């Protein structure tokens, strides 16, 4: 059976569990990281020398890094919808995955969610937070333009293109922050909320993380 290590409140673990849910894969979730610890255990370090979650084990195969896991699961267990079989369509999906990881995630997850929500108020760097908020506003306006003529980032169907960026939406819309008007992003978010796997694995209250800088 597929095994998934990580804590359910971890952003990167949520990406993986969301896809696991979409593919309806039987799996065992093993809490690890944060208050659960375990990342320094020799058995975990043998799986991932970087000592980070998520990690999966599929039989004898171990995969770490969330986007590598997403691509593996889609290639192994899907019929071509989430990552496509055509190289040109796959490249377009990969582009959105990489953009989310290198642009949106650093500015939102690290700059805003960590810089604002997870940092104790007395320690917040407000100039840096405001700069991150401004960059996030640009990112979500870009997404709004892209979604003006399609329901999902890669077209008519949900794909891996949506998972990294879409995982941000629950926290983005729940935080008490300024947001630009992005009606197409809001409509996209509503479509994602209709999916049981999204509700189960992404829409997880995160109050436990407020003011906590521990990993």
3D architecture notes:
This protein is α+β, with helices and mostly antiparallel strands. The chain has eight helices and four strands; from the N terminus they run βαβαββαααααα. The protein has helices at 11-22, 42-47, 66-77, 87-117, 126-146, 162-174, 183-193, 196-201, and strands spanning 2-5, 27-30, 55-58, 61-64. The chain has a four-stranded mixed beta sheet with strand order 2-1-3-4, with helices on one face. A hairpin with a 2-residue loop joins β3 and β4. The longest helix is centred in the middle third of the chain and has 31 residues, at 87-117. The radius of gyration is 17 Å and the shape is globular. The mean pLDDT is 95.
Radius of gyration: 17 Å
Shape: globular
What strand order characterises the main sheet? 2-1-3-4
Distance, first to last CA: 28 Å
The low-pLDDT segments are none
How would you spell out the order of helices and strands?
EHEHEEHHHHHH
Which sheet architecture does the biggest sheet show?
A: 4 strands, mixed
Comma- or semicolon-separated keywords:
215 residues; alpha+beta; four-stranded mixed sheet; 4 strands; 7% strand
Produce a short descriptive summary.
This protein has eight helices and four strands.
Give the arrangement of secondary structure elements.
Elements: E1 2-5, H1 11-22, E2 27-30, H2 42-47, E3 55-58, E4 61-64, H3 66-77, H4 87-117, H5 126-146, H6 162-174, H7 183-193, H8 196-201
Parallel strand pairs: 1-2
Antiparallel strand pairs: 1-3, 3-4
Helix pairs in contact: 1-3, 1-6, 4-5, 4-6
């Amino acid at each position: 059976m597929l095994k998934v290590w990580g804590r359910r409140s971890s952003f990167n673990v949520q990406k993986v569990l969301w896809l696991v849910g979409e593919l309806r894969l039987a799996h065992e979730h093993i809490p690890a990281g944060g208050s659960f610890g375990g990342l320094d255990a020799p058995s975990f370090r043998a799986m991932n020398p970087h000592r980070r979650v998520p990690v999966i084990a599929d039989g004898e195969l171990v995969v770490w890094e969330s986007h590598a896991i997403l691509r593996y699961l889609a290639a192994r267990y899907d019929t071509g919808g989430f990552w496509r079989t055509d190289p040109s369509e796959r490249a377009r999906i990969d582009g959105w995955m990489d953009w989310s990881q290198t642009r949106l995630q650093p500015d939102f997850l690290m700059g805003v969610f960590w810089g604002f929500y997870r940092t104790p108020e007395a320690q917040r760097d407000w100039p840096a937070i405001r700069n991150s908020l401004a960059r996030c506003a640009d990112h979500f306006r870009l997404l709004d333009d892209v979604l003006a003529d399609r329901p999902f980032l890669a077209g008519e169907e949900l794909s891996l293109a949506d998972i990294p960026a879409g995982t941000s939406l629950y926290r983005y819309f729940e935080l008490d922050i300024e947001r630009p008007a992005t009606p197409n992003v809001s409509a996209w978010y509503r479509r994602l909320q209709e999916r049981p796997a999204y509700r189960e694995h992404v829409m997880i209250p995160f109050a436990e993380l407020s003011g906590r800088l521990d990993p």
